[in-house]
Design a protein that fits this description.
2 helices, Gyrase A, domain 2, 180 residues, four-stranded antiparallel sheet
């Protein structure tokens, strides 16, 4: 049997155009969907890489925070040790100053003079004692002024005192020291 197409050619072409349009529309829609899926997939890959980097950076931040805390603790310990060292140095210096003061004073005390007390306040020392006469006190002050460790010597008071029937002179003087 022979088939004969009874439809006009224009209708056939119109049907083919419709089919072509539908096919192209489906193809373009499929292409758009594929492109969208590809873009979403690449965006997800980039997001995953960024999330991994953020995780690594957060771990690094935690590690560095621990190091910062450790450094701060070591810094505090260093400051505490430096304070202790300064205190120890100050004590050592004070101990040496006292020894130097005592040694210098003992070398300069005349025969007829006796020291009863020494009181150190900062860089000054208050000496109290008894001498046979004013001349002995003056000799002691002159000897003290000759010391390289003494800046200034001042006589605060001289009073008469009788001990065992002997008239003596009780004195108080202040010396300012320079210890370098």
């Amino acid at each position: 049997m022979i088939e004969i197409n009874l439809l006009p050619i224009s209708e056939i072409r119109e049907k083919e155009k419709k089919r072509f349009k539908v096919s192209v529309s489906l193809l373009l829609t499929s292409l758009v969907i594929v492109v969208c899926v590809y873009l979403k997939w690449t965006a997800n890959q980039k997001e995953r890489i960024v999330d991994e980097n953020i995780g690594k950076i957060n771990e690094e931040i935690k590690r560095l925070d621990l190091l910062i805390k450790e450094v701060a603790q070591l810094k505090n310990e260093k400051e505490a040790l430096e304070k202790r060292l300064k205190v120890a140095e100050a004590l050592e210096k004070g101990r040496l100053e006292a020894a130097v003061i005592m040694m210098d004073l003992s070398k300069r005390v005349p025969e007829k003079l006796w020291l009863e007390g020494l009181e150190k306040k900062g860089e000054s020392v208050k000496c109290s004692g008894i001498a046979l006469d004013e001349e002995t006190i003056a000799d002691f002050m002159t000897a003290l002024k000759g010391s390289p460790y003494i800046k200034k010597v001042e006589l605060e008071s001289v009073t008469k005192q009788s001990i065992g029937g002997v008239n003596l002179k009780k004195f108080i003087l202040t010396c300012e020291f320079r210890i370098d």
